[in-house]
Amino acid sequence: MSELESVPCVCVAPTSGETTRQALADADVLDAAYAITSIDGRLCIPVTDPERASAVLESEQGAAVIESQPLERRSKPQSPADILGYEPSIDRLGDIVILDEDDPETAREIADAVGESHVPAKTIVNRASPIQGELRIREWDVLVSDTEADLKPTETVHKEYGHEFLVDISEMYFSPRLATERNRVSEQISAGEHVFDMFAGAGPFAIPAAARGAAVVAVDLNDTAIEYLTTNAERNGVGDRITAHCGDVRDVSREYGDWADRIVMNLPHSADAFVETAIEVAGDSCVVHYYDIQSAADPFTPGIERFETAAAGAYSVTVIGETVVRSYSPHEVNVCLDLRLDRVDE
Question: Where in the numbering of this chain does the SAM-dependent methyltransferase TRM5/TYW2-type domain appear (predicted)?
Fold first, then answer.
């Protein structure tokens, strides 16, 4: 038996063990170098970042008990990198592990390593196509699947900042990498606001906005995504504050002229085609979160100029925030412009 080490742990009753473990795993703070251990009638779940673990659990379950406990380090390889000898590129969405490998043999090698590792995975998939069409859907090769799971292989429940999202990656676009950005936007929202989500998907912007007390109109061209959004709204207790529409936002917007206090435009490849629609929906003073993909050398000027041209004579345009969300390619970045539109008195 190896020597015990003092390790920070979240200590919970056994009945709360799986819920807590999943929340910590989703937040990527579960310390898989040590086994979850029962000590004095409690489950002690090792964590890598006690402060982050406490914040995650407080937002979902209330205050967490974190104590240092004597645990034994696992002796066998626990990460895919330990098994492979190199760090593979993987994403996690709920209990789906996502690979992005061109070589099928490499994808299979990584999938086998993930299956042998500590990484919890109901399904392991490899990207089989780029994002395609108006609905922004990918094709997937399912490499590993739990045939006894209740959900489809490509379906999972993703937890993010205290909210749960049922998604199907074969039916809609959903990126776990945007969690921090979505939270940045939702923290700006106040109760009573009118929020218009132009490309809502399964609700990752709309549901946190409604949870903060906003009245939300959520629009998407994908009827399946709207079905999931409606389910997720009820799942998160905000069904009464979200009005969902399936259709072209340019048509739906006719019902909401001068309505919005805040607009989310998360369609970075083509949101510029909907700037006039945003201006039609905007109220007297409206904040717009405009997502774009531009040259890293000058990522914000094109969006600013696009709004200034479209709003000329109707609104003044003020830049209140410029955020580089992530790198998109060697020379391009995904950005968000936070703009305020103020109606010009005639």
Answer: 90-343
Whole-angstrom CA distances from 209 to 127, 214, 218, 239, 258 are 31, 6, 11, 12, 19
Torsion of CA 161, 176, 287, 300, to 10 degrees: 140
Fold of 174-343: Rossmann fold (3.40.50)
Neighbours of 32 (CB within 10 A): 16
CA distances (Å), origin 260, targets 192, 217, 226, 286, 340: 11, 9, 20, 6, 12
From residue 142, alpha-carbon distances to 79, 105, 122, 130 in Å are 21, 14, 11, 16
Asked if residue 265 lies in contact with residue 199, where contact means CB atoms within 8 angstroms, the answer is: yes
Residue 247 pairs in a beta bridge with: none
Given CATH 3.40.50.300, say whether it is the number of domain 4-72.
no
Question: What would the pLDDT profile of 158-201 be if each residue is shown by its tens digit?
Answer: 989 889 999 999 999 998 889 999 999 999 999 999 999 999 99
Q: Which part of the chain is CATH 3.30.300.110?
A: 80-153
Residue for token digits 């009945």?
15
Q: How confident is the model at residue 78 (pLDDT cuts 50, 70, 90)?
A: confident
For residue 8, give both structure tokens: 């920070």
Q: What are the pLDDT digits (tens) for 14-73?
A: 888 888 888 888 788 888 888 888 899 888 999 999 888 888 887 666 667 789 999 988
CA angle 269, 273, 275 (to 5 degrees): 110
Q: For 52, phi and psi rounded to 5 degrees?
A: -65, -40
